[in-house]
Amino acid sequence: MDIKSIIFVILALIFAPVAGGFLAGIDRRLTAWCQGRFGPPILQPFYDVFKLLGKDRQVVNTWQIFCAHIYLISSMLSLALFAMQSDLLMIFFVMTIGAVFMVIGALSTPSPYSQIGAQRELIQMLTYEPLLVIVFVGIYFVTGSFKISDIVAYDRPIFLILPLLYLVLTFALTIKLRKSPFDISACHHGHQEIVRGVLTEYSGPYLAILEIAHWYDIVLILAICSLFWTTSAIGMFFLLAITYLAEIVIDNITPRLTWKWMLTYVWAVGITLSLFNMALLYAKSF
Amino acid sequence: MGFFTKLLETSRVKSPWIVHFDCGSCNGCDIEILACLTPIYDVERFGILNIGNPKHADILIVSGTVNHRNAKVLRNVYDQMPEPRAVIAIGACGTSGGIFREAYNVVGGVDKVIPVDVYVPGCPAKPEAIIDGVVLALGKLKEQRTAKDTDSLAAELHQAREFYANRADRQVVE
Amino acid sequence: MVSQMVWVSIVLPFLAAIGCLIDSKPLRSILVVGTGVAVSLASLLLVQGQAFSLNPETIFGIPADGLIAVLDFALLFVILGISYQLKNKLIAVLTVLQIIPLAFLELFLHGAENTAPSIYGDQLSMIMSLIISIIGSLICIYGLSYMEEHEHHLHVEKSRQGRFFFFMVLFLGAMNGLVFANNLLWLYFFWEVTTLCSFMLIKHDGTDIAVANATRALWMNMLGGVAFILGLVILRAKGLPLALQELISTPGVASLALLPVGLLCFAGFTKSAQVPFQSWLCGAMVAPTPVSALLHSSTMVKAGVYLVIRLAPAFAGTLFSHYVALFGAFTFLTTALLAISQSNGKKILAYSTISNLGMIIACAGINTPAAMAAAILLIVFHAISKGLMFLCVGTIEQRIGSRDIEDMRGLIRIMPRTAMIAVIGMVTMFLPPFGALLSKWMAVEASARLPLVVLMLAIGSAFTMVFWGRWLGLVMTSVMGEAQEPEEQSPLVRVPLVILAAAAIVVSFVAPGLYSAMVLPVLERFYSTDLYIAAQGVFINNIGMFAVFPIFLVMVLGVAWAARASSGKRVHQRAYSTPYVAGLQDPANPQRIGFKGPLGQWANFTTSNYYMDAWIGEGRISGWINLISSGILIILLTGVL
Amino acid sequence: MALETKNIAKTQLQAEVASLKAVGYRFVTLSCVDLGDSFDLIYHFDRELQMTHLRITVLKGDTVPSISNIYFAALCIENEIKDFFGISFDGLILDFGGHFYLEEEVKRYPFCKVSVKEPQAAKEGN
Amino acid sequence: MFDMTRTIIANFFSKAHTRLYPLQTREPFPNVRGNLFNNIEECILCGMCQKRCPSQCITVDKESQTWQVDPYACVYCGVCVEHCPVHCLFMESPYRKPAAEKVMNRLVQVQGPAKKTKGAAQ
Amino acid sequence: MSTIIPFGPQHPVLPEPLHLKITLKDEIVTDAIPMLGYVHRGLETLVSIKDLDQMVQVVERVCGICSCIHAHTYCMCVEGILGIEIPKRAEFLRIIWSELHRMHSHLLWLGLLADAFGMESLFMHCWRIRERVMDVMEATAGNRVIISINKVGGVRRDLSPDQLRWIAQVLDELERELDAIKPVLTNDYTVKKRTVGVGVLTKEQAYELGAVGPTLRGSGVAQDVRMTGYGAYKFIDFEPVVEKDGDSYARTMVRFRELYQAIDIVRQLIRKLPDGELSVKVKAAKPEGEIVCRSEQPRGELLYYVKGNGSKFLERVRIRTPTFANVPPLLAMLPGIEMADVPVVALSIDPCISCTER
Question: Is the pTM for the entire model greater than 0.80?
Answer without folding.
Answer: yes
